[in-house]
Please model this.
Amino acid sequence: MDPNKKIIFSGIQPSGSLTLGNYLGALRNFGKLQDSYNCYYCVVDMHTLTVRQNPADLRERSYALLALYLACGLDPDKNVLFMQSHVPCHAELSWILGCYTYIGELSRMTQFKDKSQRHADNINGGLFTYPVLMASDILLYKTDLVPIGVDQKQHLELARNIAERFNNIYGDTFVVPEPFIPQNSAKIMSLQEPDKKMSKSDTNVNNFILITDPADVIMKKFKRAVTDSGCEIVYNEAEKPGISNLINIYASVNDMSREEVMKEFEGKRYGDFKIAVGSAVAETLDPIQKRYNEYIADKAYLDGIFKKNAGIAREHAEKTIKEVYEKVGFIVY
Ligand code: ATP
Ligand code: LTN
Model:
């Protein structure tokens, strides 16, 4: 860890196979930041229990997420790639910060409202206090910057409020973190219902592209993607959500602006554009899939990374917990 570099923290839940939305909204940016920051990228397994999980699947998906972090180019020597449940301080800080978070604040979280509707038979305490655990993840490492998709912005704002509230009572303790939200891929939408976020927990497989989808499946899903009336390839989120989403996807995988995409496809038909988007996505994902297959086959290597980094993360996290315990008035040895 270079003491002159700022700190980045982000986490992804091993709650399903990751989508193109996760990749473009979050994962891809992780790799871009690894040289200029000290980066902590976490597999947030504890968050997944807010929804029922099959234990064997959860364990397998946690390895899969680490393999994907590596396949997307995260260097295990430059980034602390670790598992949330390996560092008990996350849960410890979560208890403390829960006592500085109001029920009113938690009730306003749109993800809580959404998920309580989708899982009406299991509206548990964890689902409600989920953002406090997320704030703890971030604040434990004195994080400066948090790369996330736009759907997590509200949670990050809450983390900032909790940090400020604590600092006001006890004096400067936490760094108040800033979000890092990409421009064209902050919110990749569903391919069949482009007014909805592309989500890995969607029941219709045609709504999302998985990072691990084979090229022919990717092409098929893009060819079937819902487009809008009219025939021009122009960006207009309100009137042409389907085409606008495809423009965002093409722009982000090719590192282009929306204007450049519109220019390239001026006068072309929707059908041609969908094929171009599908090919560009398949081409981007192909090398990631190859690397992923190699990493996931080597569990011993993945365990080695988890074990080594649990120690590194713990060391940093324990310093913060000690400081917090002292400030709130616990006896600390
Ligand atoms: P679920 O859909 O199961 O609720 P999720 O995909 O929203 O899960 P995570 O896997 O924890 O939740 O998200 C990891 C990161 O990916 C977060 O930073 C989130 O903002 C980002 N992300 C998720 N979906 C999209 C999307 N459609 N577009 C852009 N970013 C996204
Ligand atoms: N809540 C996030 C996952 C998450 C996270 C974090 C993201 C948990 N802890 C800390 C950034 C920083 C989600 O559902 N996408």
User: Anything to note?
Assistant: The pocket of adenosine-5'-triphosphate (ligand 1) is lined by residues 12-13, 15-16, 21-22, 25-26, 148-149, 151-152, 185-188, 197-201 (CB under 6 Å). Strands lie at 7-12, 38-43, 79-83, 145-147, 178-180.
